[in-house]
Amino acid sequence: MSTTSLKLFQGIGRYGVLLALVALILFGWLRYENFLGTFNVLSVLRYNSMFALVALGMCFVIITGGIDLSVGSTAALGSVVAALLSSYGVMPGLLGGLAAGLAVGACNAFIITRLNILPFIATLATMLAASGCALLLADNQSVSVSYETGFVELGQGDFLGFPIPAWIALIAYLLGSLILNFTSFGRTVLAIGGNEDAARLMGLPASRVKAVVYLASGGLSGLAGVILAAQFGAGQPIEGVGWELFAIAAVVVGGTLLTGGVGSVGSTLAGVLLLGLIFNILNFENGLGWISLSAYWQSVIRGAFLLLVVAIQARLSMRAEEAA
Amino acid sequence: MADTATTLPPAQGAPRFDIKSMLTKYGAWIALALLILVNLAITPNFATWQTLNVNLTQVCAIVIVGVGMTLVIATGGIDLSVGALMAIAGALAPLIFLGKLFPLPHPAIGIALAFVLPVLVAGALGWFNGWLVTRLRIQPIIATLVLFIAGRGIAQVFTNGNLQVFNLPSFQFIGLGRAFGIPFQAILMIVIVAAAAWMLRRTVFGRQILAVGGNEKAARLAGIPVASVKQRVYLISGLLSGIAGLIVIARNSAADANLVGLGMELDAIAAVAVGGTLLTGGRATVIGTLVGALIIQLVRYTLLANGVPDAAALVAKAIIIVLAVWLQRQSHR
User: Fold this and answer.
1) Are B240 and B67 in contact (CB under 8 A)?
2) Higher-confidence residue: A12 or B82?
3) Cys staple from A271: which of A253, A289, B104, B134, with CB 3.0 to 4.6 Å?
C-alpha cells in the first residue's frame, strides 16, 4: 500500500472514530435527559471496561498481523478461577484470574511461535480448550463470589468517585499507549505487522515479541474475567461468547488495519466506547417511548456500523491506490 | 510422493520418509480408523445401527456447512457468518409455513416456500459477503464478521427472540425423515459432499477455485475470473448454511434464533482444518472435511459414552485441531 493511502487510513481511523464518538455523544446529550448524568456515564464506563481490556490486547495482536479468538473464553476461565479464589481475599482472586489468562496466552504463544501454526487456528483451539477448562472447574454452573473478602469491590467499587474497573482499564490503556509509541518493544510490534520477514532480517526479536503480545492478550482477558466475576458476583463459564468478535470490531472501527503494521491504542478505546454507546442509546431511545426496539437490534446496529466503517475504509484505500 | 511410496518396493525408498508422507496424506483416515477400532474395543454397543445414526445426525449440519467452508477456504478466504445465516434460515422457515409472514393459499405451497425461500435468502446474504470481499476488497474475516454480528440479530428481530415450536412432518422430513432406514439428512449430506468433491476435482470451476487460492495474482494473469469465482464460493457457502439451518430446526421441532447455528463457524473450520485442507488456500479436500467432522464427533462420542464430561471433550477437540494442523505443516517443510 502506498504511503498516501496509509496516511489517509490513519487519518480516518484516528479522527474518524473520534468524530463519530463525539457526534454520538452530542446526539445523546441533546436528545435525552440525564444522558451525560453521572450515573449513566459511570455505569457505561464500568460495564465497558472489561471489553476495553480485551480490545487492548486484541489491538496489539492485530498490529502484529495476528488475531486472538480465545479472548472471550479466556475471560470466562479467568472469571471462574477468580471466583473460586475470591474467598481467600482480593489479591488471590485478582492474581488467580490473571494467571489463568496468562496461562492461555502462554499456550497461544507456544503454538504460534514454536509450532508455527496460523494464529487464527491456534487461538481457535485454545478458545475451545479454555472454555472446556472453565466448564470443568466450575462444574458447568456459575460460581458465586465471596462477598466477605471485598473481592466484589474490583467490579462494583469506586475510587475517587470513579469506578475501579474503569481505573484499571484507564491505566492499562495509558501503559499500552506508552509501550506502543515510546518503547523499542512497541516499535518492534509495529515492524512485525508491517513486514515480519524484514523485521526478522533486521535482527528484531520477532518471535519473542509476538509471544509477549499473545501473553499480554491472555493476561488482559484474564483481568477482564476478574472484573466480570466481581461485577456480577459470579464466575461465569459460559460468558464471553462473541467477545472476541466484539473486540475485533472495536479495533477495526478504531482504524487499526487487520493486515497489521498500523494501529493506535487510543482509537481502539474510542471504538469500544462507540460500540458500547450504541447499546446505551438504544436503551434511552426506548425510554422515550416513541419506538420500542428490542435489545436484539443492538447487534443489527453494531453490524451495520461495522459495515459502514469498513466500507468507507475500503473506498478510501481504493481511491488512494488509484491516485497513487 | 505418496504414490511412489506405495509403488516402490520398501528397500529402495527411504522408509522414514514414506511413513511421514503416508501419515500426512492419509493421517485423517488413519485417525478415523483407529478411533473406530478403539470404540469397537471399549465402548459398549458401538457396532449398532443406532450408534451410527446418532453420530451421523450429529455431524450432518457441520459437514454440510463445512463443505461450503472448504470451498471458501480453498480460495484463501473464510466465512464467519455461516452460523448466523443458519439462524436466519431457521427463523424464516417457520414464519413462512405458519403463515405469519404472508397469507398462504394452500399449506403445501407454504411448505414448498419454506424450503426454497430461506435457502435463497441465506444464499443472497452469502452473495453479499462475496460482494464485500470482491468489490469493496474487504478482508474476508472482516467482511463476514459483519453478518456474524448482525445476522443473528436479524433472526432475533424477525422472531422477537421467541422460540417457534411446530409439528409438521412433511417439512420436518428434511431433519427427521428416513429413506431406506438411513436418516434423510445423512443422504442429503452424502449427496452434497459427493457433488462438491466431484466439482472440485473434475470441473473448470473447481480448478479455478484452487488456482485462486494457490496464487491469486497468477490466476488473474492466467485469465481466471477471480472475482466471479470468489463471489460464487461465498454464494454456495450461504446456500449450504441455509440448508443446514432448515435441518437443525426440523430436527428440534423448534426454531430458536438465539441458538440455531451458534458456534457453527468454529465447528466447520475445525472440521476443514482436521480434514487436511490447507488453511491458506490452494489445496482442498471435501471428503477430508467429512472425515474431519467425523473424527471430531467420534472423539466427543467416545469420551461421552465412556463417562467423560462434555467439557473435557472440548479440550480434546482443541488438541486434535492443533495436532492435525501441526502434522499438516510438517509435510510442507
Assistant:
1) yes
2) B82
3) A253
Number of domains in chain A: 1
Q: How far apart are CA B332 and CA B330, in angstroms?
A: 5
**pLDDT score, position B9:** 42
Number of Cα atoms under 13 Å in the Cβ half of residue B19: 3
Number of cross-chain residue pairs from A and B with Cβ atoms under 8 Å apart = 142
Q: Is residue B279 part of a domain?
A: no
Let me know if residue B294 belongs to a domain: no
**What's the per-residue H, E or C state across B28-80?**
HHHHHHHHHHHHHHHCCCCCCHHHHHHHHHHHHHHHHHHHHHHHHHHCCCCCC
| pLDDT value of position B42 | 83
Sign of CA dihedral A179, A103, B79, A115: positive
Q: What is the ipTM of this complex?
A: 0.80
Residue of A nearest to B315 (CA): A129
In terms of DSSP bridges, do strands A234-235 and B164-165 run parallel, antiparallel, or are they unpaired? unpaired
H helix or E strand, kind and range, residue A50: helix A38-63
Q: What is the pLDDT of residues B170-229, one digit of tens each?
A: 888 887 888 887 888 999 999 999 999 999 999 999 999 999 998 888 998 988 899 999
**What is the mean pLDDT of the segment spanning A121-137?**
91
Chain-centroid distance, C-alpha A284:
25
**Nearest C-alpha in A relative to B273:** A121
What pLDDT is recorded for position A83?
92
Binding-face residues of B in 81-100 toward A, CB within 8 A: none
A311 vs B151: CB contact, 8 Å cut-off? no
Contacts of B150 (CB under 8 A, 6+ apart): A299, A300, A302, A303, A304, A306, A307, B84
And the C-alpha cell for A152?
466484589
Question: Which amino acid, one-letter code, is at A19?
Answer: L
Alpha-carbon gap: A195 to the closest alpha carbon of chain B (Å)? 18
Domain containing A299: what range?
A: 3-323
Give the count of beta carbons closer than 10 Å to the beta carbon of residue A183: 11
Measured between CB atoms, does A104 come within 8 Å of chain B? no
Handedness of CA B181, B184, B188, B189 (dihedral sign): negative
Q: Is residue B270 part of a domain?
A: no
**Nearest to residue B130, comparing CAs of B147, B154, B118, B117?**
B147
Residue B18: what pLDDT?
A: 63
Tell me the pLDDT band of A172, cut-offs 50, 70 and 90: very high
| E-assigned strand segments in chain B | 164-165, 178-179, 182-183, 254-255
Number of domains observed in the structure of chain B: 1
SS3 A257: coil
Sign of CA dihedral B22, B23, B27, B32: positive
Handedness of CA A39, A43, A44, A49 (dihedral sign): positive
Q: Which of A33-42, A100-109, B170-179, B218-227 has the highest mean pLDDT?
A: A100-109
> Which domain, by its residues, includes B249?
56-263
CATH number of the CATH domain containing A167: 1.10.3470
Within 241-300 of B, beta carbons closer than 8 Å to A belong to 262-263, 266, 269-270, 273, 279-280
Question: CA of A125 to nearest chain B CA: how many angstroms apart?
Answer: 4
Ranges in chain B, pLDDT < 50: 1-14
User: CB–CB of A294 and B325 under 8 A?
Assistant: no
Contact A128 B322 (CB under 8 A): no
